[in-house]
Design goal:
By secondary structure, the protein is of the alpha+beta class. It has five helices and 21 strands. The model has no long low-confidence stretch (mean pLDDT about 95).
Length: about 350
């Protein structure tokens, strides 16, 4: 029979293991997070069998899968693993079951998960402190009297807020707001549609700019499809001083979250505008900082004035959508406004 081995990296202890099937990897009762994990098989004797491993990491979400002893997680970044998924692959995988349980903060030892089931927790910020993995011939059940294999904490709706409004004078400035997508093009979709989120923020931001003396031009104010090529032309024809293109991100991973912005490569003023809007969004929303991307994109490429594409949240992330619906849309508009005011300040 193949020999199962696993090792890891733990807070303050460094590299730990390897241990073999059924042994405990990690320490419990000392509040130390497991940061990285490797799982592999030895003594295969020609068998076609591999180990698939995926982990849920602090501030990142579900990581890309690794195989056969590759590191899942991190070393030296101070990020905890919170959940794992382990599975056997290959022609001979059907001969075995792989079982695993974790010791999670505030939960203790979970029940045994098996063959690709999720184990641990998600959304509660609870670290894995230790893990046990067992390889058995097919058909053995290790379940114990414990209902917890995997706990997914639902995000609590954010409390409505009354954020502080920034002061500033935009008299004489023409600002074009472009709510991305629309109509038959909904953009990224999850609990909310990106096109709806874009328009909501645009219609909050516009009056904020008007109150400070700016003339506001919109590329759309209803749920309609406007061709991409027409949008920067609207800004150019209006002689706009800035082009603000509002978007929201999307991912196949519902836990992916965070804020980024896009500017045109080589545009010094576009880079400055994007940097200031990012700072405003980071301060207002407090989401993961995904940084500034310089990319040739139609909105920032064909506009005659400094331009930015904001991607404040993920339409595909339930937690981001909950935030958006509970004061986050206004915070997002305020973050962009902060950046615009700072640009002209």
């Amino acid at each position: 029979m193949a020999v199962l081995k696993y090792s890891g990296h733990q807070q303050d202890f460094g590299d730990i293991g390897p241990v073999t099937s059924g042994e405990t990897l990690g320490v419990t009762g000392r509040s130390k997070r497991l940061e990285g994990l490797k799982v592999w098989l030895d003594e295969l004797n020609g068998q076609d069998i591999n180990v698939f491993l995926r982990g849920h990491q602090q501030d990142v979400g579900w990581l890309e899968p690794v195989y056969n002893g590759a590191l899942c997680g991190s070393i030296g970044q101070g990020k905890r693993l919170e959940a794992v998924q382990i599975e056997l692959t290959g022609a001979d995988a059907e001969k075995y079951d792989i079982h695993y349980q974790v010791h999670s903060e505030n939960i203790g030892w979970t029940n045994w998960a098996k063959n690709g089931e999720l184990c641990g927790s998600e959304g509660g910020g609870l670290r894995i402190e230790a893990i046990r993995i067992v390889l058995t011939p097919k058909g053995i059940d290790l379940n114990v009297d414990n209902p917890n294999k995997y706990i997914k904490f639902e995000p609590a709706p954010a409390a409505p807020v009354t954020p502080a409004a920034p002061a500033g004078n935009l008299s004489g400035k023409i600002i074009c707001i472009n709510p991305g997508h629309g109509g038959s093009d909904p953009g990224a979709c999850g609990d909310l549609r990106e096109s709806d989120m874009n328009l909501t923020v645009a219609l909050i931001l516009g009056p904020m700019l008007t109150e400070r003396g700016a003339q506001v031009i919109y590329t759309r104010t209803t749920d309609e499809r406007v061709p991409l090529s027409d949008r920067p032309v609207i800004a150019n024809n209006a002689g706009a001083d800035l082009f603000i293109s509002i978007h929201h991100n999307g991912s196949s991973d519902p836990n992916a979250s965070g804020t980024c912005a896009i500017s045109y490569p080589g545009s010094e003023n576009g880079y400055r505008l994007a940097t200031l809007c990012l700072k405003g969004l980071y301060n207002r929303l407090g989401l993961q900082q995904r940084g500034l991307i310089q990319r040739d994109d139609s909105d920032v490429t064909y506009s005659d004035m400094p331009a930015v594409i904001t991607e404040a949240m993920f339409a595909s992330c339930p937690a981001d959508c909950a935030l958006f619906q509970n004061g986050g849309a206004e915070l997002e508009a305020l973050g962009i406004l902060d950046g615009i005011l700072a640009y002209f300040g």
